[in-house]
Specification:
By secondary structure, the chain is α+β, with helices and mostly antiparallel strands. Helices cover 33% and strands 24% of the residues.
């Protein structure tokens, strides 16, 4: 079991280098973490305090890797409860968890938490910028069947994603191989969650295909990007009007 200091070190390393994420998340499951509960709660069930994320306004459960951090944030207004990371994530399924919100915070969305509990890892996501003079999109002869099937199966469960396209992406650097580019159309304020939830859903399919996959996001309430129209891409997925969705009780 990792100590608080060791867990903090792993978290800082994973923020700097996404390849360190698997080690951090494995340690998180077995480590003791701390959360806030109401002071005068008479309920027989444990209730945890939530707050609105400064990033996107989502309700999140603050979780701390160190008891001192939890006490500093509580300021005597709530009580501190402790348990393993696995237990906390199990009992809060469906919620968004923010680890160490007052430091270099790490946010875990429900889709990622489900994957972490099931497999012990989460799809690694690295943020990057696409520059027009460095990349060129092109129309694929055929979208890999496994990728298309997984998108069609998983995206109906993500209620703010309206449409998805897949293209090829060629980089100008000779040593950088082509990748697949998934363009998700959804809500700008949910872009981070939509991309990460999709990455989680595609994680095993991408590993099986052995392909590099990049993702970009656009506002589906506005005109689709010029490059999609120019290539004449057909959506791999489009939400049907009235299509049922599953909404978390926390949102």
């Amino acid at each position: 079991m990792a100590s608080s200091a060791a867990l903090d070190t792993l978290m800082e390393q994973s923020i700097r280098d996404f390849r360190k994420e698997p080690e951090f998340f494995r340690a998180l499951l077995d480590a003791i973490v701390y959360a806030h509960a109401p002071l005068d709660d008479q309920s027989e069930r444990l209730r945890l305090v939530m707050f609105k994320s400064p990033d996107d306004g989502e309700l999140v459960i603050p979780v701390f890797t160190d008891e001192g951090k939890a006490e500093f944030a509580a300021r005597g207004n709530v009580r501190i409860v402790s348990m393993t990371g696995r237990t906390l994530l199990e009992i809060t399924r469906g919620a968004v968890v923010m680890i160490n919100p007052n430091d270099a915070r790490c946010t875990l969305y429900p889709e990622e938490i489900g994957e972490l509990l099931a497999s012990g890892t989460i799809a690694p996501v690295q943020h990057d910028e696409f520059r027009a003079n460095e990349t060129q999109c092109y129309k694929l002869d055929r979208v890999p069947r496994l990728l298309a099937r997984t998108l069609k199966k998983s995206l109906p469960g993500l209620p703010t994603i309206d449409v998805a396209y897949v293209a090829g992406l060629r980089w100008q650097q000779e040593d950088r191989p082509d990748s697949l580019l998934i363009a998700l159309g959804g809500r700008p304020d949910k872009a981070e969650r939509e991309v990460r939830a999709t990455a989680t859903a595609l994680h095993h399919a991408i590993e099986e295909l052995g392909l590099l996959v990049d993702m970009i996001h656009f506002n589906s309430r506005q005109a689709k990007p010029d490059w999609i129209r120019r290539l004449g891409l057909t959506p791999v997925y489009r939400r049907r009007l009235g299509q049922p969705v599953t909404v978390s009780k926390y949102n």
